[in-house]
Amino acid sequence: MDAASLERDLSIDEAWLFSSLEELARINRQPDGSCRRVALTDADRSGRDLLVSWMRELDLEVRVDQIGNILGTHQGRCAAKPIMIGSHIDTVSTGGSLDGAYGVIAGLEVIRTLKRHGVTPRCPLVVASFTNEEGVRFQPDMMGSLVYAGGLDLRTALHSEDRDGTVLGDELKRIGYAGECRCGALVPQAYIELHIEQGPILSREGIPLGAVENLQGISWQQITIHGEANHAGTTPMSARKDAAQAAAKVISFAQELALRMGASQLATVGSVHLDPGLINVVPRKAVLALDLRNPLEAHLQEAESRLVDFLEALSVKDGVLIEKKQLARYPPVTFDPEIVRTIEMSAGTLGKPIRRMTSGAGHDAQMMARICPAAMIFVPSVEGVSHNPAEHTEPEHLTLGANVLLRSVLALSEQGRGQ
Amino acid sequence: MDAASLERDLSIDEAWLFSSLEELARINRQPDGSCRRVALTDADRSGRDLLVSWMRELDLEVRVDQIGNILGTHQGRCAAKPIMIGSHIDTVSTGGSLDGAYGVIAGLEVIRTLKRHGVTPRCPLVVASFTNEEGVRFQPDMMGSLVYAGGLDLRTALHSEDRDGTVLGDELKRIGYAGECRCGALVPQAYIELHIEQGPILSREGIPLGAVENLQGISWQQITIHGEANHAGTTPMSARKDAAQAAAKVISFAQELALRMGASQLATVGSVHLDPGLINVVPRKAVLALDLRNPLEAHLQEAESRLVDFLEALSVKDGVLIEKKQLARYPPVTFDPEIVRTIEMSAGTLGKPIRRMTSGAGHDAQMMARICPAAMIFVPSVEGVSHNPAEHTEPEHLTLGANVLLRSVLALSEQGRGQ
After folding, report:
1. Does residue B35 register a pLDDT over 60?
2. CA B304, CA B310: separation in Å to the nearest integer?
């Protein structure tokens, strides 16, 4: 069977895809319908056990590495470097059923479809489920793939503590997923991740597929403004050093910065705390969190630099002291153009429109791109809702995404890159 | 002894003033030096007991009314309407030793000085200590004087509950200060209150005395902005309904409003809460507290009206829903010009400069002005610090303020208004 005929004939079994998504979602489902499988909890263990049972049903060779990543290998015709299909099955505290789980389960369904049709791919295929992508309880997020790609020391990751002082390594042992394989032992020839968009672009444009060609850089800053507390009824406006007024200017600046720099620059202030926070006291202190994103590193640096200039001028103008602390910094990632083209071609063979796009959110693919060619397939999430029980993707789009994944993996396998 | 010779000869005993302030401050003093005699607590009872013991030492006729106000009467030569010297002895949770207590203790010292010199004033003098001026545990603030002046129903006040559901009337009984006298039974011919400024004007201008001719109107508003929560990394700036951005515009508007309306308009945003308050989520909701003050009712209404216009325009422009709730509203108070002039003249007989001024903070005098001619004397508080253990007034200013109070009371008594 050649690649052309495979592309014509094969398609995934949507009944298994949907029922498996549902079976995983039922674990620790909350009264409001949300999924709660926070990494390293008992519910995460139950999800992992279910995933491993599916892998074993498919006769995959299951490996668990030292950070708890689960890798299921399906052997190919040659002893080539594998193609890896990855994502995660952990969720936020009130998550939906698709974020992460969709990519892992669709990966299994790709292998299931090949087996059902007696097709052995040229290269080995690995389905990877990375530990703690969400970073809810232990930070940083995308931890499993970051350690896998060598971006975070294993020991540091295992020593992470949650708010109660519980150590990640202990929890990993407790749930039975402290594996023995070395992290990053398998370096794939290509990494591909299927995910819901978690943004509104595909949904609003009515396009069923996205070929993700890059991922924004992220810069998180904490800005602390020190003013002077004063009585709101007795302190003349001219005598104030009002931390809230300075904070308002930072918030407004964030929006102006994004608008001035063009559509690819995003800027968000999602958190503000005033001290003492009383109606009749001019605030002494304001602490803001600023999220800057841009797909181009030079532009992200430009935004950061304009912020520094603005804060310096503001400090002088408002007579306040301003401190800035970097909370997180990930450079933008450019995905592999060949994989992106392969994804586009696969959509084309199905006669479906696809749009090149930038991922606004972080994904495991971002970390894997450090060690191998990588790219992502997006399907629409209705109105961009995610991290929410209302997260939803139309079933036809879920099926379509999995079929594009199937065809892309087959095409990559036949291309035999990195041999 | 005529009024002129009294003015030349009498002066208060600063040793008693200072030691009494210190004795009261020691009750439940905190490790950081702050005073904590929150109204209706055991510490408040101890403070009240001490005050009553001082009143009895002075042979005052002590009455406690139904809201717990304590009134000590010193009989005059005639059965005229009394002159009332009032303030409060409750404090905020981490207060200083002077706010309130200074005015009450100085009132006692005025009577003590008269007795020491064998001077009987023409009119009766009443020293009043009003219940719960600070409004920390039970709202509204200035409660005792508000009930006394008929601005709040006694029953409503007695039924106030704190956060734990404890009822004010029960606490008043528990501490032994649920009196039997009708609130407002004594309507004075004049009310005079000596207080630290709690603002920086006298301190910064180096003037030791203020004759308070009016008190600002206060309008407290809670502004709730409903936007739309979205992913900070995937939602284009143009597609956002960002409650924090709208909140920043309200904060900036508050300052612009005050600056446009001139020096007598104050506007403060002291409290902002964002929901969900996460760095990577465009806020769905912002709740702000806005404090507007102006000594002229028409101007305060103008500020409120401009706020309404601004919020309406903002709602349309930013695509957010905005709710506004009045949290408090006190109209400005104009104090009695004759009492103000009497205070100025008393300062003049001591050869001390005095400045007419507006009170930015609320005081019991504001409530008493509803039922009788009233005015206030201010002394500087260093840098305007108050509600803070660092609250401080130079001893010479404390002495001077009490002497101006003494001379003002004597002059008012001799004028014999309202007979």
Report:
1. yes
2. 10
- Which residue stretches of A193-291 are H helix? 201-205, 243-261
Mean pLDDT (whole number) for A374-403 = 94
* pTM for this predicted structure: 0.80
Q: Residue A46 is encoded by which pair of tokens?
A: 């139950």
Contacts with A280 from chain B: Cβ below 8 Å:
220, 268, 270, 291
The tokens for B281 are 């989520």
For B185, what's the count of Cα atoms within 13 Å in the CB-facing half-sphere?
Answer: 15
Where b means 16+ CB within 10 Å and e means fewer, A200-233 reads bbbbeeebbbbbbbbbbbbbbbebbbbbbbbbbb
> Cβ–Cβ of B249/A252 closer than 8 Å?
yes
Burial classification of residue A262, based on how many CB atoms lie within 10 Å of its CB (0-12 exposed, 13-18 middle, 19 or more buried): exposed
Phi-psi region of A391 (alpha: psi -120 to 50; beta: other; left: phi over 0): beta
Question: Nearest 5 degrees, angle CA A48-CA A20-CA A129?
Answer: 35
Chain segment A2-54, per-residue pLDDT in tens? 555 655 679 999 999 999 999 999 999 999 899 999 999 999 999 999 999 99
Please tell me the distance from the alpha carbon of residue B112 to that of residue A184, in angstroms, as a whole number: 87
Q: Considering only CA atoms, which of A273, A68, A283 is closest in space to residue B291?
A: A283
Residue from B400, B340, B412 nearest B11 by CA = B400
Q: β-strand A83-87 against B266-275: which pairing, if any?
A: unpaired
CB contact under 8 A, B361 and A231: yes
Q: Which residues of chain B from 50 to 79 reach within 8 Å of chain A, CB to CB?
A: none
Rg (CA), chain A: 23
End-to-end CA distance of chain B: 22
Q: Does A283 touch chain B (CB under 8 A)?
A: yes
Taking residues A335-359, report their average pLDDT. Answer: 97
Residue B1 has pLDDT above 60, yes or no: no
Q: With contacts defined as CB-CB under 8 Å, which chain A residues touch B359?
A: 233-234
The pLDDT of residue A279: 86
Residues 6+ apart with CB under 8 A from B25: B35, B97, B101
pLDDT tens figures, B164-174? 899 999 999 99
Retrieve residue B74's tokens. Answer: 């010193």
CA–CA–CA angle A13, A102, A362 (5° rounding): 150
Contact A235 B272 (CB under 8 A): no
Strands A190-196 and A83-87, sheet pairing: parallel
Residue A2 makes CB contacts below 8 A (sequence gap 6+) with none
Tokens standing for residue A15: 């009944």
Question: What are the respective helix, strand and coil percentages of chain B, to the nearest 5?
Answer: 40, 25, 40
**Measured between alpha carbons, how far is B85 from B103 in angstroms, rounded to an integer?**
8
B20 sits in which H/E element: helix B14-25
Tens of pLDDT along A140-198? 889 999 999 999 999 999 999 988 899 999 999 999 999 999 999 999 999 999 999 98
d(C-alpha B387, C-alpha B379), whole Å: 16
How far is the C-alpha of B66 from the C-alpha of A180, rounded, in Å? 77
Q: Could you tell me which of B419, B399, B396 has the C-alpha nearest to residue B407? A: B399
pLDDT per position as a tens digit, A194-228: 999 988 899 999 999 999 999 999 999 999 999 99
Pairing label, strands A210-215, A355-359: parallel
- pLDDT at residue number B419: 47
Closest CB from B272, B280, B290 relative to A274: B272
Of A230, A271, A276, the CB nearest to B384: A230
- Cβ-Cβ contacts under 8 Å between A and B: the total is 195
What residue ranges in A189-245 does DSSP mark as E strands?
190-196, 210-215, 217-226, 230-231
- What pLDDT, in 10s, does the model give residues B317-330? 999 999 999 988 88
Please write the tens of the pLDDT for every residue from B327-358.
888 899 999 999 999 999 999 999 999 999 99
